Automatic annotation (TrEMBL):
Main location: cytoplasm
MF-aspect GO terms: ATP binding; hydrolase activity
Family: Belongs to the PhoH family.
GO cellular component entries: cytosol
Keywords: ATP-binding, Cytoplasm, Hydrolase, Nucleotide-binding
Official protein name in the record: PhoH-like protein
Location relative to the cell: Cytoplasm
Domain PhoH-like protein: 133-336
Annotated Gene3D superfamilies: P-loop containing nucleotide triphosphate hydrolases
InterPro entries: P-loop_NTPase, PhoH, PhoH2-like
């Protein structure tokens, strides 16, 4: 095998321990094996903590002991991480966490036809000349595959799940490969009505702070000088939602971020901008609506109205998909619990 040799999978132990397994992996590149283990074996320690297994290293050989399911999940995670290293990329803590999530969810993964051996994690990826990123959760995997296949994709879920970053990364890949002629990135300029008059500066200076997350994602996937030249040539356009009215966006990758803060009319206006040979991606979090009280969210309405429309795919993220600091996932869970409690109390009163 290109990544590792499984010497013993699994090994039955004495009565009372029949659910235990003993897996030995041998890697064919000592340098990559060292990178896989991490400094002072920190990556292995993290796998042990996440999966409840025992991992011992000896040169380019690893021994995994634990329950049969956990040991197999560790093997899948290590196989995934070693594959990333073989492609010339580096791995860090977030990659290890992502590999664990993918390994646990491997049996339910939305896989494409493949010749890979059964049980191998085949994470979706987005590649540009600057960077390759891999799915770090089952929903990220489904989202990235939906972006490849569908002309209209909704990415719904809490902050930190990668829905906006992956959308911009996919758009950058399409542009680099010549599959679209430009990228159009948009979001409501301000949360409550796009009233910009009180802000200093010209229009670009007024709206740039609201669009900064889109710039950040672009710079992550493309060299800064290319991004700046593309913006100057209007090959990449970053504009508030109000600027979309009356346009038809053909041969474009079009992204609407923070869509929960659109009105129903704004959402309809945006969706009907889709032109020939274009892809449209809409991202948002229905739990973070900042519109004035009694104003309906265009995102919530669109998800209801368009349910079942052929050609549209909706991928819903949850706190388990948060790929930022682990504390972010706990914060999302806490707010979700509080929201459910408040709704329950409201129903009783």
């Amino acid at each position: 095998m290109s990544a590792a040799e499984v010497k013993n999978l699994p090994q039955n132990l004495p009565s009372g321990a029949s659910d235990m397994a003993h897996i030995v992996l041998t890697f064919d590149n000592n340098k990559l094996a060292s990178a896989l283990y991490g400094q002072f074996d920190e990556n292995l320690a993290r796998l042990e903590q996440k999966l409840g297994v025992d991992i011992r290293s000896r040169g380019n050989q690893l021994t995994i002991k634990g329950s049969a399911s956990a040991a197999e999940q560790a093997r899948r995670a290590l196989d995934n991480l070693y594959g990333i290293l073989q492609k010339g990329a580096d791995i860090g803590q977030s990659d290890v966490d992502g590999a664990v999530r993918m390994a646990i969810a491997a049996d339910d993964q939305l896989t494409l036809p493949t010749l890979e051996r059964k049980g191998k994690v085949s994470a979706a990826q987005i590649s540009t000349r600057k960077k390759t990123i891999y799915a770090r959760s089952l929903n990220q995997d489904a989202y990235m595959r939906a972006l490849e296949r569908s002309e209209l994709v909704f990415g719904i879920g809490p902050a930190g799940t990668g829905k906006t970053f992956l959308a911009v990364a996919h758009a950058a890949m399409l542009l680099e490969r010549g599959m679209v002629e430009r990228i159009v990135l948009s979001r409501p300029a301000v949360e409550a009505g796009e009233r910009l008059g009180f802000l200093p500066g010209d229009m670009k200076e007024k709206v740039d702070p609201y669009l900064r997350p889109l710039y950040d994602a672009l710079y992550e996937m493309m060299p800064a000088d290319k991004v700046e030249r593309a913006i100057a040539a209007e090959v990449i356009e970053i504009a508030p939602l109000a600027f979309m009215r009356g346009r038809t966006l053909a041969h474009s990758a079009v992204i609407l971020d923070e869509a929960q803060n659109t009105t129903p009319m704004q959402m309809k206006m945006f969706l009907t901008r889709l032109g020939e040979n274009s892809r449209m991606i809409v991202t948002g979090d229905p739990t973070q609506i900042d519109l004035p009280q009694n104003t309906k969210s265009g995102l919530v309405e669109a998800l209801r109205i368009l349910d079942g429309v052929t050609g549209m795919v909706t991928v819903r993220f949850n706190e388990g998909d948060v790929v930022r600091h682990p504390l972010v996932a706990e914060i999302v869970k806490a707010y979700d619990r509080d929201g459910k409690l408040a709704r329950g109390l409201g129903a009783e009163s």
